Amino acid sequence: MSVRDHCGIVGIFNHPEAARLTYFGLHALQHRGQESAGIVTATYDEARDRRVMPTHRDFGLVLDVFSDHDLFRSKLLGEAAIGHTRYSTSGATDNPANIQPFVVHYQEGNLALAHNGNLSNGRSIREDLVAKGTLFNSSSDSELILHLVAQSREQGAIPRIIDALHQCRGAFSLVMLTDDALIAVRDSNGFRPLALGRLEREDGGVAYCVASETCAFDIIGATYVRDVAPGEILVIDREGLDRVERAGDRTAEGFHGVCLPRDHGVNQCVFEYVYFSRPDSKIFGAMVDKVRRKIGKALAHDAPPPVPDEGEKRPIVIAVPDSSNTATLGYVTECRKLGHDVRYEIGLIRNHYVGRTFISPGQDAREMKVRTKFNPVEGLLKDRIVVMVDDSIVRGTTAKQLVKMVRAAGAKEVHFRSAAPPVISPCFYGMDFPTETELLANQYDRDVEKMGAWLGVNSLAYVSVDGMMAAVREASGSDGFCNACFTSNYPVPVERGVEKEENEW
Amino acid sequence: MSVRDHCGIVGIFNHPEAARLTYFGLHALQHRGQESAGIVTATYDEARDRRVMPTHRDFGLVLDVFSDHDLFRSKLLGEAAIGHTRYSTSGATDNPANIQPFVVHYQEGNLALAHNGNLSNGRSIREDLVAKGTLFNSSSDSELILHLVAQSREQGAIPRIIDALHQCRGAFSLVMLTDDALIAVRDSNGFRPLALGRLEREDGGVAYCVASETCAFDIIGATYVRDVAPGEILVIDREGLDRVERAGDRTAEGFHGVCLPRDHGVNQCVFEYVYFSRPDSKIFGAMVDKVRRKIGKALAHDAPPPVPDEGEKRPIVIAVPDSSNTATLGYVTECRKLGHDVRYEIGLIRNHYVGRTFISPGQDAREMKVRTKFNPVEGLLKDRIVVMVDDSIVRGTTAKQLVKMVRAAGAKEVHFRSAAPPVISPCFYGMDFPTETELLANQYDRDVEKMGAWLGVNSLAYVSVDGMMAAVREASGSDGFCNACFTSNYPVPVERGVEKEENEW
Amino acid sequence: MSVRDHCGIVGIFNHPEAARLTYFGLHALQHRGQESAGIVTATYDEARDRRVMPTHRDFGLVLDVFSDHDLFRSKLLGEAAIGHTRYSTSGATDNPANIQPFVVHYQEGNLALAHNGNLSNGRSIREDLVAKGTLFNSSSDSELILHLVAQSREQGAIPRIIDALHQCRGAFSLVMLTDDALIAVRDSNGFRPLALGRLEREDGGVAYCVASETCAFDIIGATYVRDVAPGEILVIDREGLDRVERAGDRTAEGFHGVCLPRDHGVNQCVFEYVYFSRPDSKIFGAMVDKVRRKIGKALAHDAPPPVPDEGEKRPIVIAVPDSSNTATLGYVTECRKLGHDVRYEIGLIRNHYVGRTFISPGQDAREMKVRTKFNPVEGLLKDRIVVMVDDSIVRGTTAKQLVKMVRAAGAKEVHFRSAAPPVISPCFYGMDFPTETELLANQYDRDVEKMGAWLGVNSLAYVSVDGMMAAVREASGSDGFCNACFTSNYPVPVERGVEKEENEW
Amino acid sequence: MSVRDHCGIVGIFNHPEAARLTYFGLHALQHRGQESAGIVTATYDEARDRRVMPTHRDFGLVLDVFSDHDLFRSKLLGEAAIGHTRYSTSGATDNPANIQPFVVHYQEGNLALAHNGNLSNGRSIREDLVAKGTLFNSSSDSELILHLVAQSREQGAIPRIIDALHQCRGAFSLVMLTDDALIAVRDSNGFRPLALGRLEREDGGVAYCVASETCAFDIIGATYVRDVAPGEILVIDREGLDRVERAGDRTAEGFHGVCLPRDHGVNQCVFEYVYFSRPDSKIFGAMVDKVRRKIGKALAHDAPPPVPDEGEKRPIVIAVPDSSNTATLGYVTECRKLGHDVRYEIGLIRNHYVGRTFISPGQDAREMKVRTKFNPVEGLLKDRIVVMVDDSIVRGTTAKQLVKMVRAAGAKEVHFRSAAPPVISPCFYGMDFPTETELLANQYDRDVEKMGAWLGVNSLAYVSVDGMMAAVREASGSDGFCNACFTSNYPVPVERGVEKEENEW
């Protein structure tokens, strides 16, 4: 599918190799944004006798931005760090000033911020700030938060941050770094995930970390403690660590927190389960892999495979790799339980050497891009009834190419199954969707038959919203989800203008 | 496993977009070499009134080397082209002069060459040439062939090439470009694959192509005709095309060929099936995917899963992605047919953003490299008996890390199954293996129990040589294979020195 | 000498090729700063229906920063532009956020600024702003001015700019760009030069331009109109152009201006004449070349050449190229008029391929740097009495190396003459001088004999402050000069802290 | 003038910092070629137990190619080195294989070569080699020499080199490196300069060096010993050093040499004096500065300044910096001696930040290039009779622009004087001249009046061939010079084809 990832954020506190661990955490979150990467640390500069925040950030993959490993030895020093990988949802993409984390110096000292999300009242905050004579360096929502902190009438970094965040609406999972503390925040809806982890240091000490997804904990050997709660402003500092240590119980939690008011209930993004997050991550209280498997099972009920004619070979079920692999496994298992004689096969091979940024030369660029990424396994598909499962259908352009390729490989019939309901509405809470009219479902008035005809399939079927939500609720044990992209039920009102404006100047 | 890919070669004849198609073909063969890439075309330069061979090649992935798409419009002109992606098996890796295709100018005009393989008599050829006053520009075997052509006493490009190739022993699949023809060659053993394809042009004409693997045909919409035969020197030129056209049957073959003597029979590399080639390619007469599935089935017989105690949950079988996915599917299917109650699961997630060249900063670089590439799916593995299937075990270092990670994710038992027999001998025919003593099997005198202990598994088992060869023979319908890396039966004698010398100066 | 250049600024209004002309102007001012370069234009973006300021800036020479000429055709559009070349006098040098021109968006629209100088009350302005919750993106003085504009209580861009500049003290020559106007400013002391020029367009229209030095006018074919006056805020806009046109006299001046109060009189930097500016520029009302020649003549009176013994060949006078060439010519002419039999010779050859940033490998880096830059002409110097003339002596380290080289080339005696008095005090008005203790004169308590001994010369002599000032006054017809670096008479008080602090964070 | 430099070569033997000294030598010779630079050293690789020749070379200035100073510590090891800076006179300029020094491995071991010149029988040598089956890697003449060495029937590196050089005709100054020796060669005509120097090492040992110009000796503190003689093949090796040491006299020469037959007498390039070489170099037995001064004096006789009308101010004489500075000084001195009341002034300022490769954006590129490089000093030229002296006139295009600029600066009259006779014939011995028809003198049938009219001057005059040659002979004490570019008297016949062919393929 063609939704592009948004952002991944990481923070580490109280570890001598904070930057290097952040680097590995960013690698684990690379799928959440391939446009730029950055790390900021907090340390004390003896030569200049003050607290400083060394920073390194650039356009590119984590691997390329930090290819000079000397950075970790000589520059990104300090025991606290935050990092960011980004695909921006607002803000001009070619402006280096938009690369996060942001770092500023203000009355209370240094402050760094990494943001995943999208403020729904960003426009009015910006207008207020401009009217007060504020200059902007980026077109990003995230800079607004920094100005609110600096202009707050509260005293002290933490009270200012709390004050500032009370003014923000919409989707924001944040890690912030002050000279003394790491602060982790989730908006009161909990749109975007953010988890707290703990890492035993070799010297016996304990470090704390936060990350968008728990796969970032695995890579550095940290253990998952809990999610940062929707609306929580969690302050991880030396004082809190001392309380943990005094308690003599490392699993005790000594950190102060503040809670933002929950105006609209909890509304966690169901699309994180459907596509964004890695299957090996735990978010919103459940392993993504497990949720996807359950959605796959629901799909088997809502959209069973075709029944072959007598004498016909059994249908084969193939996933569009890699994002729909797990849902497909769940689908096949449940289909068989329901009595369908189908078999799981690997029918599309993905070429991982070409990434998101690949542009194909020549006229037929779009088609060649898909062909460069995917290739059918010919012997397997020839003369077979093929059921293709994808995690979702957004524009449908890639799906259409894949169907064409599978047919060209000799498939007798192609049946398409989507492990998410039709996408019908854009997201204003941090995902970069096409505009409403570009969505396949809207181009054909949500008429599945017409959509299938355009895709060139023998049949097209989706999991139902109810089926998907039941699976999500069951796997996560929670009921607080946003599914606006499938239902148009937007939990938080969005300012006019946020929908369309790129705040670039 | 830790065998590094070697080389991929492509050639196109009689197509106005020869270079662009070659570019896509190289993308499909990127898994065969990520160190450098290059394309050479043959065209006529009106301004200078002569035949020329525009060339572009550099270190890096295909995507990066050809990031300037103007190349295809303004430089790499002409209706014939050859391309190469490389991981060198001999020759210094940081010398730009070693990047293929090579292009030279000699008595008969221009000549370009792209080579996959390793001459077993390269040393004596080099010594002879040096004694005659020949200068070398690279340390590559491939340059030797060019000198033999230039110094041949035959007249005409084709007779010289034939003469030169009669002097070469060992592994060589080649595509060569003269001012008038594309020449495709496989050594008489047929060690490395090379296939012939046909491409219908939009204007009604027909183009021919050759490639290491047929996945390169799929990406450009070409159809597989047949393999270049072991020992065949196939000349694809205008004259041959005319014969095809006159025959009025496009499937007719009009090309001249010459056959090199088959001194040692046919010895196709079984490791191409085990690991090198893509599952969606057809090589040596069979789809790789199909062969791997059959080997997986043989593995079920030779190395069944453990039988759980009463009341224990059924074991889960996971693949080390992506190279062992198909074999694992075959293994699970056959296990169930044999009465073992096991289930296929996706238990390791692979991060595709870090490639072969990733180097991790810090002391624990090796471990962190594996952790950055793979992550276990925790909920799935916890308290389960896990059977891990890999395509093969070479040094065993990655396998050991993976086992440690799967255990840390909570697996109760870890059983390792290799879909290839123990690797016991290095390859002198084009694969870059560790030295004999570095191979895991040799470090423990081929004692499987000790090897398993070092890997930290509850059990370790391999497919047998007989089991694997039976599967390969059945799937391919052929009997001519080299399995020296598993058996030490080297079909072609190797000169002393080839084993150890890096010909760098 | 080792004073590093500071900044060059240019602005163009009402020319369809504004950016390209700015580019050439920056080339002419390259000597004023080689660290970074940038251009901003003002134009209307039809697609987005608003005024925008396209910007390109980077570290490096003008040639390298603008090596992609497409910039001028596709990005830097508009009929008004400003440019900047920089060696920063405060602000961290490796922070890209410090590269000028700065561009911001605020209540009144877009605003860009290029600054040459140093605010003497920068510290207290910054403290005030920080207390108001202002965030800083750079450590540069210049950003302060932008915040003052944005936070001004006046209405409209021009009134706000006037308000902001009334709060600034110290040295600032500025070009600013609003969506409608080009604004040129000199502080009331007139420390740094800034001139107004006029350019006849091919289509009959007239463009106006401003630049640090008039050599920037020559390169684009503009003619010098007059200096921007000390304290003048000159607004060049469409309205003013219309007045010019209505007047029917192109030499009429139609532009509005405002004058800042002259608290400390006029204090133009005498060091601009001594070293900074190009000899082919007119600044502060006089050609630099002419002033230098007159200083050279004064030097002949204050520091005549040695009188050779009977029978000795006449002394030869050589310049340290290229900055002291003109003063040396004046010196020789006047010496001869005074009866000294000396001859002007080219005795040192300068290698222009190594620039300011050249760092020599190895232990003896400093010596090798000088040897790479300068080489004596051996045949010429051998056995001769040599008088070396340099524009000034700051640390003396380069002078010492040169003396050593000239002696090694066979000179019998080396007499050093400085066309500026001893430098004894740092500059706080925009020049980057060594600290007070590093200055040669201060290391030897201004004892010229000891200084000469350290340099290794037979005699050392300087032009007197009176001699230099008389020459400057005569040539320029003006009396308002700052010579604090030679006299410690600072015309404007400097805040504690400005002297030492690098405002980096 | 618009002749582009060709090549500079350096070699060092018996110094522990051979590569670093070569690096500085190349800096001094940067004016002889700015297209590429390279260094090769000879050393023993313990790990591989053999002699090796580490190499670093790339396109760009010496400064940029060797910006990584680690090269000198970790790669370019050994006590012998050669280096090359290049502007090629034949060979494709964008082919990296053409960057010198060349290094090859052949029967006798390693061999490196750096070449300044142009073989006049290069075409027939190449044809012979091609017929023998030789492959070419570059289109450079220099590679021919390497093949001749490798294919020689002699035994031993030195005899092979001698044999090879006997087959070469035309211009070649060479430094070569074998595993044991540094070899310096000048063709028998001595077209290009090459000098031998001696360097006292800090540890008491003695190193020897060779270089195109002696300014390369000055930078490293070496002393000039003598020129390599025309036709000399000088072998600098350990054996020779031992002889020097045994002699107990460091100025003794212990090196073996061989002399090539002098078929055409000695023909040293007079243009090296006129323009190519640096004034601080000694070549062909004389300081360049001294020769130029003498030519300037001859110019005063052949082409005196105009006599001003009564009451008119005296004419001022300005040089086109920097190449004609010395000749202009000589001209002014002699003019005054001859009774002309003229004065030397600095009337054109050169901007050294833009180098040879500067390309100006826009339509008026050529004019803007000149304006970016040169600017007149306005106050000085206004209303004056100006005599401009340039070292030579080739196409005349730059001269024409300069005249226009000087006029625009207010000069009343402009008189142009060339310190070389009219250039009428191309060079086939190593200089890159325009074609015959592009030369200004040939466009107007050598009619000086018409040439002056085209240039836009009040008068144009040249030094005569006789005047120039007398000056050269007197200053150098030699009579063996080639002045074919001024006289068409080619001392060595040139093969058809060498004139026009670019040997690119």
What does this structure look like?
Four copies of one chain form a homotetramer. Chain A has 505 residues and is an alpha+beta fold. The first copy, chain A, folds into two domains: 7-264, Glutamine Phosphoribosylpyrophosphate, subunit 1, domain 1, CATH 3.60.20.10; 277-487, Rossmann fold, CATH 3.40.50.2020. Chain A contains 18 helices and 25 strands. In chain A, the strands form six sheets. In chain A, strands 1, 2, 3, 4, 5, 10, 11 and 12 form an eight-stranded antiparallel sheet that branches. In chain A, a hairpin with a 2-residue loop joins β8 (170-178) and β9. In chain A, α4 crosses α5 (141-151) and α5 (141-151) crosses α6. Chain A is elongated. At the A-B interface, α1, α7, α11, α12 and α13 of A face α1, α7, α11, α12 and α13 of B.
Tell me the layout of helices and strands.
Four copies of one chain form a homotetramer.
Chain A: E1 7-13, H1 18-28, E2 36-45, E3 50-52, E4 55-59, H2 62-65, H3 70-75, E5 80-86, E6 102-106, E7 109-119, H4 122-131, H5 141-151, H6 157-166, E8 170-178, E9 181-186, E10 195-200, E11 206-211, H7 215-220, E12 223-227, E13 232-237, H8 238-247, E14 256-259, E15 268-269, H9 270-276, E16 282-283, E17 286-287, H10 288-302, E18 316-319, H11 325-337, E19 343-345, E20 348-350, H12 365-373, E21 374-376, H13 378-381, E22 385-390, H14 397-408, E23 413-418, H15 440-443, H16 448-455, E24 459-462, H17 465-476, E25 481-482, H18 484-487
Parallel strand pairs in A: 15-25, 18-19, 18-22, 22-23, 23-24
Antiparallel strand pairs in A: 1-5, 1-11, 2-3, 2-4, 2-5, 6-7, 7-8, 8-9, 9-13, 10-11, 10-12, 13-14, 16-17, 20-21
Helix pairs in contact in A: 4-5, 5-6, 10-11, 10-17
